[in-house]
Amino acid sequence: MKKITKQTYLKWYEDMLFWRKFEDKLAQVYINQKVRGFLHLYNGQEAVLAGSLHAMDLTKDKMITAYRNHPQPIGMGVDPKRVMAELYGKGTGTSQGLGGSMHIFSKEHRFYGGHGIVGGQIPLGAGLAFADKYKGNDAVTLTFMGDGATRQGSLHETFNLAMLWKLPVVFCVENNGYAMGTSVARTANHTEIWKLGLGYEMPCRPVDGMKPEVVAKEMDEAITRARKGEGPTFLEIRTYRYRGHSMSDAQHYRTKEEVAKMQEQDPISYVLHNIYENKWATEKEIEAIDNKVKEMVSECEKFAEDSPYPEKNVMYDTVYEQEDYPFLPHKL
Amino acid sequence: MKTIQFREAVCEAMTEEMRRDESIYLMGEEVAEYNGAYKASKGMLDEFGAKRVIDTPISELGFAGIAVGSAMNGNRPIVEFMTFNFSLVGIDQIINNAAKIRQMSGGQFNCPIVFRGPTASAGQLAATHSQAFESWYANCPGLKVVVPSNPADAKGLLKSAIRDDDPVIFMESEQMYGDKGEVPEGEYLIPLGVAEIKREGKDVTIVSFGKIIKEAYAAAETLAKEGIECEIIDLRTVRPMDHKSILNSVKKTNRLVILEEAWPFGNVATEITYQVQSQAFDYLDAPIIKLNTADTPAPYSPVLLEEWLPNQNDVVKAVKKVLYKE
Ligand SMILES: Cc1ncc(C[n+]2csc(CCOP(=O)(O)OP(=O)(O)O)c2C)c(N)n1
Ligand SMILES: [Mg+2]
Predict the structure, then answer these.
(1) Has residue B326 got a pLDDT over 80?
(2) ipTM above 0.90?
(3) A-chain residues within 8 Å CB-CB of B86?
(4) What domains does chain A contain, in order, with CATH numbers?
(5) Active-site annotation holds for B60
(6) To 10 degrees, what angle do helices A6-31 and A283-306 make?
């Protein structure tokens, strides 16, 4: 793994702050109905992504996740303007406006979605790894899922197959405490999700997901194992989401105190604290980053606003490779 | 009469039935402590307790199957899918077990179970969250499929569905839960398999069901101003289908438009079209028109979604076309 340096922390600070502000902007424009549908924000979970990206080889490794998926493609290299435009339903969006908030994809940057059916991406992640192994590539796929998704049969079938075939995949639960209004404790007879790996003899462990360097270290071990052909790892990365499940969640299932307490461990504040402790940046330098981030978010918003809506034909042209579609006219 | 929301109608139906019959329970994601993702089970945990109003983890295959098994052994479960899009994770248990167990066991077991939840699109939710599987389920012998369009129908039909001794797929809509409507005071049931004429007219028959029927109502208003009288039939139950009501109406109007929010290939409208041409061919004065979604997964962008969904303008156009007006 690349060494974790002053530069790493400064990058983490800038990236995480940008993801946070980018999504705060989404929440804001959602209220103005610029963005519609479901909107699930990553607020609070940023260290999981920051740490993981540090451990990945971004020239070849892959990522797939569920619908809480706006910062991940940006982290993988996708132009954030195009992510914002997708949420606006614009033709310049990552899926030309077809996918929306829950379905961000970038083949170019090896971000494989963006999946709306809970647990649906778990076998896909193993499948991406299957193809890499098949082709003899030494790339690794990071397959993310929520705590709620671990109760789907898809996880259990996939774990078995991935171990049986020693697929180069890292299964990562982002345990943010809840699946909508259901706490982890209410979904199973156990709360240590990482132990699910034991039954398959899959290397597995819990990870503190509020500290990017901790995530990076654990992820590096898992990725190294997968790259060497030793098969999958299962990490339960413990984190928290500060906002509701989606924009329409009254959050009666948890207290304000609980959220406030978890906010004390805010990963962005944590990274900033480390930077100041080590005198890696002055307040002025941090202010410059803050301003840059603000500027970048404004640019995204402006780009999304100014972009045109897609042409109607994209809805048909993207269904099949075959070109004479639709086979029959739709409207009279 | 009293005025209540669709979600309250669903809740009243389940609550009243659970009071009469101990063997009924409600199971699904967020149905208990959260009072339902769309608040259709509000207050039910308080009244019936955790034994009978049961939160599940996200395990559709598991809990659908457990419910079917319990129905084979004396329970009468109501299973809520947060939306029917997610029923696909558990569809094996519905098609291979719930629908088959009676016939396959030579009639020894029955499967008195209701699978309910919202169907079809609900705004810009895109491809995986906007699907209508009425025709998929209706294609399967052993299942009944009910799709109400207003609170009064929802309540009366859901009560019948719960009392039915066969598996019933009961489909609602996120976009209807807030709809208000008049509902009779006191207990009432609406039989499954009976359509209702929601608007009488002599010029053209429009058959529809579920949320999208509102587009037909709006179109009928517009057309009435031009002197065209539409008869609107709300199927209410898709399977068993009330062919008689459709045929009687078509024999009167001689023209048929079918409005269904679903992909066009082999859907409910296709079935109606076949039945009508085979049983009332000589009564038809124009080819039947069916209005459906575009033949694509649902797009997210508002401009594309508008193109994708059938709407009242499409209905107006179709009605004029079967009347050979412009
Ligand atoms: C198969 C399926 N069932 C139900 C849903 C509805 N749903 C969407 S997100 C969600 C909760 C998932 O929680 P978790 O896996 O912990 O992820 P988080 O939202 O916390 O990131 C549910 C029940 C769905 N999208 N897919
Ligand atoms: Mg969660």
Answers:
(1) no
(2) yes
(3) 117-118
(4) 6-327 (3.40.50.970)
(5) yes
(6) 40
